[in-house]
Amino acid sequence: MFKSREIIKQEARTFLEKNYVQIILVTLLLSVITGSFRTEFRVNVNTGSNVSQIQFGNGLFSFPLFSFALSMIALFVALAVLAVAILIGIFVKNPLEYSCKSWLRHQTDERDFSVFDVFRDPDYSRIVKTMFLRDLHVFIGFLCLIIPGFINLYKYYFVPQLLEDHPELSPQEILDLCEDMTMGRKEQLFIFDLSFILWDILSGITAGLAGIFFVNPWKELSRQLLYLDWQNNGVDPYYVSEENTFQE
What we know:
Largest sheet: 2 strands, antiparallel
Structural class: mainly alpha
């Protein structure tokens, strides 16, 4: 039998109280790597000055050579920074997101490990590939329209959790499994997140302090417990909760 939202959220608060400081730190790291960094580039070149004059024979041509060079340099730097940011996202941010969510989930069984162990994980390359495919699908959804983007967010809601539970599945198989699990249940996930709306407003009123020290950790723990509840109720067809093993 599925647990109610109220029971899941109450259990999450209990786990939060047991290991408060560490959960706060891991959730803060997770919040930073999943959306707090934004890079903005602005190029402002004054073409009215720094004009070079080039003379060929009897003709005189004016060309904003210096301004053009500045623009090209600024564009090159912007593209280089963007490329580095994308690579950091693929090879650092995404694995850390996976590891943070795994750490939070295992607070329910008191397993202890470092979130940075993911970079020594033999499965690191599969984690990178799967999380990249997830982001690519979500990005394509947002390119089409806003609504398909949000649909894809909830379609691949549990990709990090399934990655850990199914080491035998390929990246595309993980995405397919997550899509099957959330089919017909995306509205339930949306309502689950929406149930924290008043707490999110409180976080905004307190300039994010309530989010850092209570709301975000509570919300993330609740999401992990929701996944475990779905798993134990057979939503994941590969998982056998009684034996804690995987079906072939």
